[in-house]
Design brief:
Layout (H helix, E strand, L loop, with lengths): L4 H23 L7 H17 L23 E3 L8 E3 L5 H13 L10 E8 L2 E8 L2 E7 L5 E3 L2 H4 L16 E9 L2 H13 L8 H9 L4 H6 L3 E11 L7 H10 L9 E4 L2 H13 L7 E8 L2 H7 L1 E2 L2 E2 L2 E5 L4 E13 L4 E13 L2 E7 L3 H7 L6 E5 L7 E5 L32 E2 L7 E3 L9 H9 L11 H9 L14 H5 L6 H14 L4 H7 L7 H11 L2 H6 L2 H4 L7 H12 L1 H12 L21 E5 L7 H10 L3 E3 L8 E4 L5 H9 L2 E3 L1 H9 L3
Parallel strand pairs: 2-13, 21-22, 21-23, 23-24
Antiparallel strand pairs: 1-6, 3-9, 3-10, 4-5, 4-7, 7-8, 10-13, 11-12, 14-15, 14-17, 15-16, 15-20, 17-18, 19-20
Helix pairs in contact: 1-2, 3-9, 12-13, 16-17
The chain binds 2-(butylsulfanyl)adenosine (IVH).
């Protein structure tokens, strides 16, 4: 039956759309839709053309395989064409059985004949590369291109550490190795993290990262995006006795120093393939790289030759896919989450979509800059990626599916995203330093989202040191509503504590005693305990020494704060912002109201600094002081503590069982003192 006008129009529309996606994918290295969607369009067109051959226009994308070579790279004609591989779309065990049935039929085997032996391996999600070795030396690397002609990418492939520049042993006169260049998930994440903190564009997925890196014109930039490689087959071979099976070829390549993936199997008949497919599915998330399926190959090369090819695809191999890790869905809303450290993260609420093995309903958008760069808006159709056990993320927007106010290409229906200026959880001001990508809530002591983190930090050993107030108890105290801010810790009593799950009376009493002890502290511990961003122990000490008491510190402006040694504009700004937030001031007032105090003389603002300019190294166990206490004393008196002994060390303070540092001190002639001598030195001038 000839095609209807509607079918002809649909075929034309599909050709046009697929052509656009091809260009974006192969030429721009910037895919516009996920593979699953592309495959769906492609299949629809192929089926239409199969039913109505007159629709198969000469320029139909179904008539070619792969991409066109980029003009920037010299073309390389493949001595043996680089073919593609048929895909089995049935995700279940039938995928393997259907392949076996086809193979047996093509070989004319009857039901009673022995099983065909198969090799199973992973289908790596990267970029196919042909490595040409002549007499063992890597002379050229090329992409697949359209299968006949690829691009010369030798320079960039040389940057891949996994690719040997010379083969082990005496290499054959010609050996072409085919395989996949890929980017590991770890390298992908690290690259994107780095880009995000620099405010630069990120890669959409590791495969795209591999393609971009291989086709990067500047080999130095290519090296910045590290790739790996797995060999899975051969191209042209001269002067080498090719082993008789696929599995033996891979073993031989491995012996020559080429990287071959260890996850492979040989199976007589299809059931071993079914098991392989299931086993790899179970470990897919845990693999260090993306795969989109497994590949089965007839193991015996003689049988492979007998089976041959149909329309540029070997009859002896098939790809058996897994459910995709990238899918299309729509954005229903963009919300902002506040993390434990106050970081504001925009999150897309999505129409539920099954991706990477789970149903995803929200996906991170990382930060405001990234939402802007990707221009994600409510109503948009987006690509969602969930690979490995990493949280799902929005990769990109399908621009031409954005809802518009009218049909004539007018304005988008929804405005661009903007981050709120106050915290969506507690209403405190939001801070975003100019050179940072992450915006944060400044209500650290007050914000419910940051409560648990703030309490744990407040009670930690180097802060107010409330022994027994650990993660589990903080969870309970916050979840039952007993404690909201650190000040509430001081209102706890035996009755309330005893009401908690698994809280024995003795531990409740111990905790209350620890709380009681913590009421008397030092200014520097207190300042550190507040959990001000960028204020660690050392800065807290400097602040305490400089200001002497809390009120002048709380009221200092950024200029005044920068008068403190080692406090630069970034730290000064964090401090000023923290104390500018009324919520934080309320909590501090409540803490002081609850009796938390510090002896003013503990602030050594104008105090003596008898150890100034002297460097100490601590070693062994001191009789009365812990390592931290000794360090605290030395630093409070203006000295420095170093980790290793050098000529610049003034004193080594040695206790029991002092080790190699003591030997080193003797060797360099550095003065060795004990705890008593340290105390005496520290008291000079008092
Ligand atoms: S064999 C003649 N084995 O999948 C068979 N291909 O369409 C040639 N791929 O882009 C391919 N892992 O780069 C083969 N273990 C594997 C593979 C694999 C990934 C890619 C290949 C090509 C596509 C095949």
């Amino acid at each position: 039956m000839p095609a209807t006008a509607a079918e002809a129009a649909r075929a034309a529309a599909l050709r046009e759309e697929i052509g656009r996606h091809d260009h974006a994918y192969y030429v721009l290295d910037a895919p516009t839709v996920p593979d699953a969607e592309y495959d769906r369009l492609f299949r629809e067109l192929r089926d239409l053309e199969a039913r109505h051959p007159e629709l198969a226009a000469p320029d139909s994308p179904t008539r070619r395989v792969g991409g066109q070579p980029l003009p920037e790279f010299s073309p390389v004609r493949h001595a043996v064409p680089m073919l593609s591989i048929r895909t089995e779309t049935d995700f279940g065990p039938d995928g393997a059985r259907n392949f076996d049935t086809r193979v047996r039929r093509a070989l004319g085997l009857a039901d009673g004949d022995p099983p065909v032996e198969y090799a199973a391996e992973l289908k790596f999600d990267g970029l196919a590369i042909n490595l040409r070795y002549e007499r063992g030396l890597l002379v050229r690397a090329a992409t697949r291109g359209d299968g006949e002609t690829g691009e010369d990418v030798t320079q960039n492939v040389r940057t891949i550490r996994a690719v040997p520049l010379r083969l082990r042993g005496a290499g054959p006169s010609v050996l072409e190795v085919r395989g996949e260049a890929y980017m590991s998930r770890r390298d992908f994440r690290a690259y994107n993290e780095r880009q995000r903190t620099r405010g630069l564009p990120t890669l959409v997925n590791p495969r795209n990262g591999a393609a971009g890196s291989i086709r990067q014109l500047d080999p130095k930039l290519a090296a910045e995006r590290p790739l790996s490689f797995f060999a899975y087959g051969l191209g042209e071979v001269q002067d080498w006795a090719v082993p008789g099976t696929h599995a033996a070829i891979l073993d031989a390549l491995q012996a020559m120093g080429l990287p071959v993936c260890g996850h492979r199997a040989v199976s007589p008949g299809p059931e071993g393939l079914v098991a392989f497919h299931a086993r790899i599915a179970a470990m897919r998330d845990a693999l260090p790289f993306d795969i989109d399926g497994v590949v089965y190959k007839v193991n015996d090369l003689a049988l492979q030759r007998e089976l041959g090819f149909v329309s540029r695809e070997p009859r002896w191999a098939v790809a058996h896919k897994y459910p995709p890790e990238e899918m299309l869905t729509t954005v229903e809303a963009i919300e902002v989450q506040v993390g434990r450290t106050g970081a504001l993260t925009p999150v897309a609420r999505l129409a539920p979509v099954f991706v990477g093995g789970v149903t995803v309903t929200n996906a991170t958008l990382h930060n405001e800059d990234e939402v802007r760069r990707k221009d994600v808006r409510v109503g948009d159709t987006v690509i969602v990626r969930r690979a490995g056990d990493v949280i799902p993320e929005v990769v990109s927007v399908v621009a031409d599916r954005r809802p518009m106010k009218d049909l004539f290409g007018g304005e988008p229906l929804h405005p661009p995203f903007v981050l709120p200026t106050s915290c969506p959880v507690c209403g405190s001001a939001v801070e975003k330093p100019e050179d940072e990508a992450i915006a944060r809530c400044t209500g650290g002591l007050f914000c419910p989202a940051q409560r648990k983190q703030a309490l744990l930090h407040f009670a930690s050993r180097r802060a107010l040191d409330i022994e027994g107030l650990g993660e589990k108890l903080v969870d309970q105290l916050v979840d039952t509503g007993l404690v909201r801010t650190p000040a509430d810790i001081y209102a706890l009593d035996l009755d309330r504590l005893a009401a908690l799950d698994r809280m024995a009376e003795k531990s409740a009493a111990n905790l209350l005693a620890a709380v009681e002890r913590s009421r008397t502290t030092t200014l520097s511990r207190f300042v550190y305990a507040l959990g001000i961003r960028n204020v660690g122990e050392a800065t807290a000490r400097d602040l305490a020494r400089h200001f002497g008491d809390l009120p002048p510190l709380m009221d200092a402006d950024e200029v005044g704060l920068q008068a403190v040694p080692d406090v630069g504009p970034v730290v000064a700004r964090s401090i000023a912002r923290f104390f500018a937030e009324p919520h934080n001031r309320e909590v501090i007032a409540a803490l002081r109201g609850a009796g938390v105090h510090w002896p003013i003389h503990a602030a050594v603002a104008a105090g003596p600094a008898p150890l100034a300019g002297r460097t100490f190294v601590l070693t062994g166990t001191l009789p009365t002081m812990s390592r931290d206490e000794a360090k605290g004393l030395i630093e409070a008196r203006g000295g420095k503590v170093a980790g290793s002994v050098s000529k610049k060390t003034d004193f080594v303070v040695a206790g029991a069982e002092a080790g190699s540092k003591l030997d080193k001190a003797r060797e360099l002639g550095v003065a060795v003192i004990d705890e008593a001598a340290l105390l005496a030195l520290a008291q000079e001038g008092e």
